[in-house]
Specification:
alpha+beta; six-stranded antiparallel beta sheet; 6 strands; globular
């Protein structure tokens, strides 16, 4: 019997996962910024391995979803962009404003490419998530088949960002969406712009790709 079934509660587990994610993000931020002495680095590495060991004793397989996730409800705690439990996620928070998806996040040192600015691949990852969210929000979910990203100015670290996305066109199964990244302070000055094409899956495609997961997921 799982912890959730045992009465510990779904919300309590989700809160614990997010708390662990916060701790891991702090660890990554501190580790990528540290200039601590070599001996302290080695000591920290040993402590981290010790802490990680019990977490690995009960790990999910590839086709097993997290017990705290809800695939149909859109809850993905370990999504590497939006998941509160993911050490890799900023995390990006997204909400709906009419027909526009609006996101916000601040990127730390772990996302650095050029000194003091975000890696270009991180911008593409954020925009892919935003465009996909806009497609789902519009009632036309699909999978990314093309993402064209234009970089106008570098994206600064440690700066609140504002991201937007909307569906521009729907042609049968093909959905086209556009999105931008700007700073929250100056949302009119676009730093990165992207156009993506998404394709709605046929039932047989969805079954082939996700059948093993959906058969075991929540």
């Amino acid at each position: 019997m799982s912890e959730i079934e045992n009465g510990h509660g779904l919300q309590a587990r989700r809160a614990a996962i997010t708390d662990l994610g916060d701790a891991l993000r702090l660890l990554i931020e501190q580790a990528t910024a540290t200039e601590a002495p070599t001996a302290d680095l080695l000591r920290a590495a040993a402590l981290i391995r010790q802490a990680a060991a019990p977490l690995g004793e009960r790990a999910r397989g590839r086709f097993e979803t997290a017990s705290a996730d809800d695939l149909l409800g859109g809850v993905r705690l370990y999504n590497p962009v939006t998941g509160g439990g993911s050490a890799f996620a900023p995390p990006l928070e997204i909400h709906r404003d009419g027909d526009v998806a609006v996101g916000s996040c601040t990127l730390g040192r772990a996302f650095e490419g050029p000194p003091s600015f975000a890696h270009g691949g991180v911008s593409a990852m954020l925009l892919d998530q935003m465009l996909g969210y806009a497609c789902g929000m519009s009632g036309h979910p699909g999978m990314t088949v093309q993402l064209d990203t234009g970089y106008r100015q570098p994206v600064p670290l440690y700066t609140p960002l504002r991201l937007t996305a909307r569906v521009a066109a729907v042609d049968k199964r093909v959905i086209t969406a556009t999105g931008t990244i700007a700073t929250a302070e100056d949302p009119a000055s676009i730093l990165v712009r992207a156009t993506g094409k998404f394709v709605a899956l046929l039932p047989e495609q969805a079954q082939r790709l996700f059948g093993p997961v959906m058969g075991r997921g929540r």
